[in-house]
């Protein structure tokens, strides 16, 4: 029996991503026949069906196919590191680096990484995907990304965190809000005023649970999934919010005030997630350094503002 080839694994991963033979062929820029032949050969090598064909509806992976696809991604990723390993020995970094980013952290993380690698390691090819904390970690465990940037509270089973920036939830106000200059803030104080909260789990769940533990219920006439929109509402003085990221002005340019408040379960650092037991590669380690340096500089600028 002949050996499994990298080409077969490449085509099979493309099938898993596209959900069809046709889509895989287009992604790999080969004929459908070539993909079908490679799939048949791979199924023959492993001794089981990897996909279920649904005429007119593409293909669905079997349970064995899901496992083989995940392992194939790992194999292809490791092969792709060969050139970067040689570059590392020569003192420079190169090769592909794919990173999944929780959507509210993307506005910080993506520009910081592009700037860092463009200046220092131009031979590194960066790719990004955005989504919920769970989405980007599932991509990580499936081998679709090499690193996930999340908040620690979003960590799922199978992933381990590396802290990038200590963080604590803060109350955000416009300067004119009656609580903006209050010397001491409690959740009971906050509950008396209209709020707009991020409609994203587990953030919303944790926020509501914190109020409940203090025996109060917040007044929440609005929820949003865009942190930019939320801060614009806050900047207009229409509501307060509870957020992780501080900035001097709303996206519309209105000044913002951020205040600490008393309550449970407020700490929530920015973290990098890697699969359990996986040590960061040189590329991933460089990305961690870049993100840490960005937050150090950002926090210093905010402190001096």
UniProtKB/TrEMBL annotation:
<dbReference type="GO" id="GO:0003700">
    <property type="term" value="F:DNA-binding transcription factor activity"/>
</dbReference>
<dbReference type="GO" id="GO:0003677">
    <property type="term" value="F:DNA binding"/>
</dbReference>
<dbReference type="GO" id="GO:0005829">
    <property type="term" value="C:cytosol"/>
</dbReference>
<feature type="domain" description="HTH lysR-type">
    <location>
        <begin position="4"/>
        <end position="62"/>
    </location>
</feature>
<keyword id="KW-0804">Transcription</keyword>
<dbReference type="InterPro" id="IPR050950">
    <property type="entry name" value="HTH-type_LysR_regulators"/>
</dbReference>
<keyword id="KW-0805">Transcription regulation</keyword>
<dbReference type="InterPro" id="IPR005119">
    <property type="entry name" value="LysR_subst-bd"/>
</dbReference>
<keyword id="KW-0238">DNA-binding</keyword>
<protein>
    <submittedName>
        <fullName>LysR family transcriptional regulator</fullName>
    </submittedName>
</protein>
<dbReference type="Pfam" id="PF03466">
    <property type="entry name" value="LysR_substrate"/>
</dbReference>
<dbReference type="Pfam" id="PF00126">
    <property type="entry name" value="HTH_1"/>
</dbReference>
<dbReference type="InterPro" id="IPR036390">
    <property type="entry name" value="WH_DNA-bd_sf"/>
</dbReference>
<dbReference type="InterPro" id="IPR036388">
    <property type="entry name" value="WH-like_DNA-bd_sf"/>
</dbReference>
<dbReference type="InterPro" id="IPR000847">
    <property type="entry name" value="LysR_HTH_N"/>
</dbReference>
<comment type="similarity">
    <text>Belongs to the LysR transcriptional regulatory family.</text>
</comment>
């Amino acid at each position: 029996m002949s050996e499994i080839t990298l080409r077969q694994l490449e085509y099979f991963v493309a099938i898993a991503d596209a959900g069809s033979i046709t889509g895989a062929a287009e992604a790999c820029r080969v004929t459908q026949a070539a993909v079908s032949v490679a799939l048949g050969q791979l199924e023959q090598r492993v001794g089981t069906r990897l996909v279920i064909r649904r005429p007119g509806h593409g293909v669905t992976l079997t349970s064995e196919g899901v496992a083989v696809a995940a392992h194939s991604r790992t194999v292809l990723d490791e092969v792709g590191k060969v050139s970067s390993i040689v570059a590392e020995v020569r003192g420079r970094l190169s090769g592909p680096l794919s990173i999944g980013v929780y959507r509210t952290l993307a506005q910080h993380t993506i520009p910081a990484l592009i700037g860092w690698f463009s200046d220092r390691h131009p031979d590194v090819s960066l790719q990004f995907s955005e989504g919920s904390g769970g989405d980007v970690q599932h991509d990580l465990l499936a081998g679709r990304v090499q690193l996930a940037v999340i908040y620690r509270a979003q960590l799922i089973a199978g992933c381990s965190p590396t802290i990038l920036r200590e963080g604590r939830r803060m109350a955000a106000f416009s300067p004119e809000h009656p609580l903006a200059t209050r010397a001491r803030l409690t959740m009971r104080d906050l509950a008396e005023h209209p709020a707009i909260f991020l409609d994203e789990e587990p953030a919303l769940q944790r926020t509501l649970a914190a109020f409940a533990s203090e025996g109060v219920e917040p007044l929440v006439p609005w929820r949003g999934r865009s942190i930019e929109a939320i801060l614009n509402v806050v900047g207009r003085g229409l509501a307060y919010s509870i957020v992780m990221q501080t900035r001097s002005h709303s996206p519309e340019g209105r000044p913002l005030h951020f205040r600490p408040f008393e309550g449970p379960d407020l700490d929530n650092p920015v973290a990098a997630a890697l699969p359990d037991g996986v040590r960061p590669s040189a590329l991933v380690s460089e990305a961690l350094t870049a993100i840490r340096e960005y937050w150090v500089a950002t926090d210093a600028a905010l402190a001096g503002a």
